[in-house]
Every structure is written in C-alpha cells, then in structure tokens.
Design goal:
Length: 383
C-alpha cells in the first residue's frame, strides 16, 4: 500500500527510476486503453471479478456504481497501485499489467488532490517534469502552458492552502497533464465540491479534455456527473461490470434490474407471468406487454417503469391501477409525484408541472403504465 507521499509522487508523474526508464514507456497516445478480464481479491474477498472494457483513444469513460462496487480498486489497478490477481491492462497496445506505477505514462488525480502543501502552484505543476531532470526553461514553459489550460495563470506563486477547493482540483489536473501522459485517471475529482462549483468544473473539465484529447477514466458514484463528462459509462456492481454503453443506451436499453434501479429512478412492481405477454401484478391487475420476456409462464418477475412513463388520471379509469396521491415536488418544469398503490407499493410519476394534474394528499387517482417502455426482469436474488 502506498502512503500519502507516494500518492503525491504518482499523481505528479515523478520518474523515480530516472528519465531513461520514463522514456522506455512513452507511447503513441492515440491507441487507447483496454482492461481485459481483471480480477482481484483482498483477504479472500473478491473486489473485482472478470472486469473488462475499452476506452478509445481520446475518449472519456466513467466507472459508475455505488460505494464498495470496486471502481476505485479498478482505477488503482489501471494506475499500477495494485497488481491484479488475474487479467490484463493494455495501454497504447502495450501490456502494462506488471509495469510499476511510475513507469506507466499515466497521470492520476486523487480525490484529495494530493498536492504538496509546501510547494507553490507552479512547483506542484512542474514537480513531475523536474523529477525527469528536464531543462528549467522547458519546465517553466510547460508549467505556464498548463496553468493557461486550467485558467490559473495568475496563481503560480500561491500555496495550495491559499486556493479554493475548485482551484486545487484544477492544479491537480494541470500537474497530471504536465508530463504528457498517455492516459488520465481521476478518482471522484468533483466529490468534495458544492453543487454549483461541481457543475462549473465539470464544464471546465470537458473543455480541457477536448483541448488535450487524452484517454481518460473517471471514477464517480454520481449518475448525472458521469452522463455529463463521459462518452461511455461502465456501470459496476459487487465487483462486476453490469453494463457498458452510452448514457442513453444504458438508460433505455437495460440489461439488469440493478442497472434499471441505479440509473435514474425505476418503479418496480412484482408480479407473475400469466401468459407469454401478460403479467399479473402482485397488487391485482394484469398488464399486456408489448413483447414477450424470456421467462416461462408462471415465473415470478419484476416489471419496471420510469416515472416519465407513468400517466395519471381520475379514479376508476378503465384498465388503470388505483392509487393515492401522497405528495409532489417541482423539478424544473416537471412535477415529481409520489403515489401509493392499493397494496402499499410506492410509485413515482413525472408529469407536466403547468398542465398536469394536482391533488391533495390522500386523494384517489389512477395510473397507467406505458407498456412499450417497460422492462421485465427476474426478481433479485437474496443476498
């Protein structure tokens, strides 16, 4: 395990093995990153299980999932901070699986930024360059270039403690990019910032990444953040990859109940498959499906529907589910409505805030589900 000082060295791209060793792993940064069948365990407990994905050169992939799903462990394996028990990590067509962290041509931004507190902003940005024994003039020119990139030209003489959290984050990114790595890794880089600043820096990151065009892997648990900054999402759960795709693909074409529940809100209604295209819900009514799910007749299933695919109507509407209006909250031009079915199942609907229905808490309503947009899954297995 690396201590905080070693993390700072790695984040800065310090070439501990000397400039010749660093040059040996310099590679054409146009070939991307491949993670193939990576597995790792800590004390007999599996942290990663056959994880695999690819990042195109210059692309941004977000490792997304709840705490403890293995995303930070995977990032550290890519960085070389841990050696996976099995699998391959290939960067620019070269197998980096057993290459030491300091020789991987990878820049890393840690969650706490890992800046050297006694060095100025300019010295932090140039630390990895100085460790490579580059000429001072070249170091100064590269530092100035990086500070312009992150829009901190006037802050070079300041110490980290004299900066805001957002400014420290930008210094950490500038330092990681200064050594011109083949890939950039970021571990929850916006997590410690308030919502407004986080959105601002996400926009800054998108601009910087487009300017530099570097292959990037970012770890986050924030769905909105992942969809904002990344081209591709890798959704992880319990050490495994559940689904890989664009934000739109994962939201609309789901492969598991976990992804459906994790990516946005999903109303989950238990039931049983009464016919190839008919589900009888546990709360009573039956639904005619748009397509037959891959389960035998009589199988227990879970039907899911997004809040925007729930329509509300007056009580007693034909073919609708009876429900009670519980509460509502505005979300921009929409109204998020909490409802309760007759059996106590909670359902959420998203309706037009201006022209949509309004009811007092406890009032009876009905709801219908858009069967064309529903998904049917097997029930979750007991843990």
């Amino acid at each position: 395990m690396f201590d905080e000082g070693e993390d700072r060295d790695i984040a800065a791209g310090a070439a501990q093995d000397g400039p010749a060793a660093a040059a040996q792993v310099s590679a054409d940064p146009t070939r991307g990153l491949i993670v193939r069948d990576v597995s790792h365990a800590f004390g007999g407990m599996a942290a990663l299980c056959n994880v695999g994905f690819a990042v195109e050169a210059g692309g941004v992939v977000a490792l997304l999932g709840p705490s403890g799903c293995g995303k930070s462990t995977l990032l550290r394996a890519i960085a070389g901070l841990i050696a996976p028990d099995r699998g391959e990590i290939v960067l620019d067509r070269r197998d980096m699986t057993r290459v030491p962290a300091r020789r991987r041509s990878i820049g890393m931004v840690f969650q706490n930024y890992a800046l050297f507190p006694h060095l100025t902003v300019a010295e932090n940005v140039g630390y990895g360059l100085a460790s490579r024994r580059l000429p001072r003039r070249e170091v100064a020119a590269r530092v100035a270039e990086m500070l312009r990139l992150v829009r901190l030209e006037e802050y070079g003489a300041r110490l980290p403690r004299e900066l805001s959290g957002g400014q420290q984050q930008r210094v950490a990114v500038a330092r990681a990019l200064a050594v011109r790595p083949s890939a950039l890794l970021l571990d929850e880089p916006f997590g410690a910032l308030d919502r407004g600043l986080r959105a601002e820096l996400q926009d800054e990151f998108i601009r910087m990444q487009a300017d530099v065009g570097i292959t990037t892997v970012i770890v986050t648990h924030d769905q909105e953040e992942a969809q904002t900054v990344a081209d591709t999402l890798v959704v992880m759960h319990a050490g495994r990859v559940e689904q890989v795709g664009t934000a739109e693909e994962i939201y609309d074409r789901l492969v598991s109940l976990f992804v459906n529940s994790f990516m946005g809100h999903a109303n989950a209604l238990p039931g049983r498959l009464a016919a190839p295209k008919t589900v009888t819900l546990a709360c009573g009514p039956s639904l005619d499906l748009d397509r037959a799910p891959p389960f035998p007749r009589g199988a227990e299933v879970v039907v899911t529907a997004r809040p925007e695919h729930v329509a509300l109507g007056p009580p007693g509407a034909e073919g609708a589910l009876a429900a009670r209006w519980i509460r509502a909250a505005p979300i921009a031009n929409m109204l998020s409505v909490d409802l309760e079915l007759a059996d106590g199942t909670a359902v959420k609907a998203l309706v037009d805030r201006l022209g949509g229905p309004r009811h007092a808490p406890g009032e009876a309503v009905s709801l219908t589900l858009d069967t064309r947009r529903m998904h049917v899954f097997a029930p979750p297995r007991p843990i």
